[in-house]
Amino acid sequence: MYEYFLAALAFGLSAGLQPGPLTVIILHQTLTRGLPAGLRACLAPLVTDGPIILVTTLALPHLESLAGFTTFLNLAGGLYLLVIARSMFFSSVHPVHVAAAPLTGSLGTAIRINLLNPNPYLFWFTVGGGTILRGSHAQAVVFIATAITTLIATKMGVALLASRCQPLLSDRIHQRVMRFLAASLALFGLLAMARAFPA
Predict the structure, then answer these.
(1) What are the Cα distances from residue 113, in Å, to 40, 48, 83, 107, 199?
(2) Are 154 and 17 contacting, i.e. CB atoms less than 8 angstroms apart?
(3) Which of its termini does the chain have fewer beta carbons within 10 Å around, N or C?
């Protein structure tokens, strides 16, 4: 049992600290809409990973290749990231307005990005799925619960750190940070689309 717990802890921490589209959205939501919006965005894996794990456990024993599926996800996800990046780049939301900013979009945007991100699928269809199928029901539950909880907790730590740094940002620096986040998201989108057409 400890083996599954420690493995899930390691996977959750590494995924939580890894730069990616979800981390960018969490930072953007935290710095523009406040900490509550950033924390909401952190909950996306709680919604998205459950269905992915269910599909994994049902399909993995009969699956021969993920190539076509990942190609579609890379194209669709990359295009969606470019759309979000463009919106972020030209956004005029400023941290002084966070009290009035709606929170409903933060979780929804994060969920859509995570559903179109190939990385959760690749993890659960390979290392994660193999671990689940290899263990008992109790071990699988421990592994899934620990991995997702650790991932969300790590992302929340990132949001809290960003929230603490927010008062230090002047208007000019804040704008530059937003542009940098938008450019980073656009880069992730371009890389995802490029992976759909390997050389």
Answers:
(1) 14, 10, 11, 10, 25
(2) yes
(3) C
Inter-CA distances, 166 with 2, 89, 120, 134, Å: 39, 18, 29, 45
**Angular region, 174: left φ>0, alpha ψ -120 to 50, beta rest:** alpha
Is this structure's pTM higher than 0.70?
A: yes
- For residue 120, the tally of other CB atoms under 10 A from its CB is 22
Give the tens place of pLDDT for each residue, 147-164. 999 999 999 999 999 998
CA 43, 165, 102 angle in degrees (round to 5)?
45
Tokens (6 digits) for 23: 């981390």
Joined together, the tokens standing for residue 72 give 């579609």
| Nearest alpha carbon to residue 113 among 36, 162, 198, 47 | 47
- Assign 63 a pLDDT band (cuts: 50, 70, 90): low
End-to-end CA distance of the chain: 42
Are the CB atoms for 193 and 74 separated by under 8 Å? yes
Structure tokens at 6: 């420690």
Tell me whether residue 11 is exposed, middle or buried, using C-beta atoms within 10 angstroms of its C-beta: 0 to 12, 13 to 18, 19 or more. Answer: buried
Q: Is 90 exposed, middle or buried (0-12, 13-18, 19+ CB in 10 A)?
A: exposed
Distance of alpha carbon 84 from alpha carbon 182, whole angstroms:
8
